[in-house]
Amino acid sequence: MKDLMPASESEYTDADFQRVRQIAREQAGIHLPTTKKALVYSRVSRRVRERGQGSFHAYLDFVTSSAGEGEMQNLIFALTTNVTSFFREKNHFDHLESVVIPHLAPQVRAGRRGRVWSAACSTGQEPWSIAMSVMTAFPDAVSHDFRILATDINANVVAQATEGAYNAEEVEAIPAGRKSQFMEPSDDGDYRFAGPIRRLPAFRVLNLNASWPIQGFFSAIFCRNVVIYFDDATRERLWQRLADKLEPGGFLYVGHSERVSCASACGLIQVAPTIYRKDH
Ligand SMILES: C[S@@+](CC[C@H](N)C(=O)[O-])C[C@H]1O[C@@H](n2cnc3c(N)ncnc32)[C@H](O)[C@@H]1O
Q1: Is the CB of 132 under 6 A from ligand 1?
Q2: 148: left (phi over 0), alpha (psi -120 to 50) or beta
Q3: Range(s) for CATH 3.40.50.150 in the chain?
Q4: What are 211-225's pLDDT values in tens digits?
Q5: Which of the residues 39, 188, 200, 242 could staple to 131 if both were Cys, CB 3.0 to 4.6 A apart?
Q6: Any binding-site annotation on 14?
Q7: CA 130, CA 92: separation in Å to the nearest integer?
């Protein structure tokens, strides 16, 4: 019976928290300050219970053993926050639609590649919003070499993003005209992206703090509301790597509470509070 008992808070020691911290840093570059100790308890205790482990200690022993590789993924997923919404921080989509795509579309029609990256896409609202903006400004994009790469470390959210189905409440943030143009309702009351727009995004699992098997350069990168989980050094390394993946004149969008500390050293020019352009 003991194995089925939930782990109690008294069994969650500071040493357990330090182990989780180390795992988060090593596996995902995620920094967990001590202020997150209670949050970590509530997130991880669910995994401890689900695995039927009697204590945090036993759970962490399992996760770090060779048999626990699959569960290690679940632990990382439990430590990440996936909050997102359609057209979140809308000025980025307005900029993409009115500045970036109108400039890029004639060149892509003439034969060059066009790429946009949603670099921590969560359940997909960000890349699907990008796709709607692209289809609005460049309706024939799917007939040319134009694609949106959408990546996240969490395979579960990437699967949901790929499905592209959302409930009625989630799609409220999509203007009615776009919803009817790009989505179809299903019998269970959900809405699903349908038609040519489905050919624009490609979804992949990718850890931003590991190597990137990505060819070529991007005209725009959305990296929003993810670096808040990283420490300063990890953040700066990421900004530099993202800047290196932008083509000259390409744009980087960051979350409204974020800023690129190393902008000029990274070859970026700030053109608006959370919008940066790669120097030529
Ligand atoms: C709060 S969501 C942000 C989603 C979207 N970019 C937005 O602004 O609405 C943060 C996402 O970052 C992902 N994430 C956390 N650490 C990551 C890492 N090391 N590599 C890639 N994605 C990561 C999480 O899985 C989560 O889906």
Answers
A1: no
A2: beta
A3: 91-278
A4: 999 999 999 999 999
A5: 200
A6: no
A7: 9
